[in-house]
Design a protein that fits this description.
Order of helices and strands: HHHHHHHHH
Oligomer: single chain
CATH architecture of the largest domain: Orthogonal Bundle
Helix content: over 70%
Radius of gyration: 20 Å
Number of domains: 2
Strand content: under 5%
Number of strands: 0
Distance between the termini: 61 Å
């Protein structure tokens, strides 16, 4: 490996270390506690080194948001590919969305504004649009109307999202009910929306 490649690899490793350190700090102390100084201390660098990779804390937040959407989109695609019927795909994808929220709680909070003021960030990424499109395309596959009404597709998407995001938020903020009860509530809600998708 040449010196240019080695330098580039070291830069990428440092960049990833910065992002990993930021996420560790958030897991320990929450998003409000994140600062460039804390990140520098965590990876034992000086703050100016961090600024060589990210202009400010918002740059780190944007990159972590992108990372979250990339992971979520991969998980939605994997779940959709497990099923052939659109109704099973929709249920599976929303369950995968639910699982993502609790497996990657801190990323979910950043992506969707639970306890944060970052909801607008999702508009900045093609990956975010991809997560919406894969679900909307599946909703369209269930619809019997010809031509398909895009406003209705959008309304159904937001019906799903409101219910699932609402349940996730309740569990984040108030700790909700036990997992088995949550799964019953979630599945009942999803099946109900799917059943009336053409209304």
């Amino acid at each position: 490996m040449g010196s240019k490649e080695r330098i580039q690899r070291l830069k990428e490793e440092t960049r990833l270390n910065i992002l990993d350190a930021a996420l560790e700090i958030v897991k320990e102390d929450g998003w409000q506690s994140l600062s460039m100084r804390k990140i520098a201390d965590k990876i034992e660098y000086t703050a100016p080194i961090i600024y060589e990779y990210f202009a400010n804390k918002e740059g780190i937040l944007l990159e972590l948001t992108r990372k979250g959407y990339i992971i979520l989109l991969q998980e939605l695609k994997a779940e959709k590919n497990k099923h052939t019927l659109p109704e099973d795909q929709l249920e599976g994808m929303w369950l995968a969305y639910w699982n993502f929220a609790f497996k990657y709680k801190e990323l979910y909070q950043l992506m969707y504004g639970v306890d944060m003021n970052c909801c607008e960030m999702m508009k900045a990424f093609p990956e975010a649009e991809g997560t919406t499109n894969i679900i909307c395309d599946t909703i369209k596959a269930l619809m019997t109307a010809d031509p398909i009404n895009d406003d209705l597709v959008c309304r159904k998407y937001f019906t799903f999202w409101s219910v699932v995001h609402g349940l996730i938020s309740i569990n984040f903020v108030r700790k909700g009910t036990d997992n088995e009860t949550n799964q019953h509530i979630l599945r009942d809600a999803l099946k109900g929306i799917i059943k009336y998708i053409n209304d």
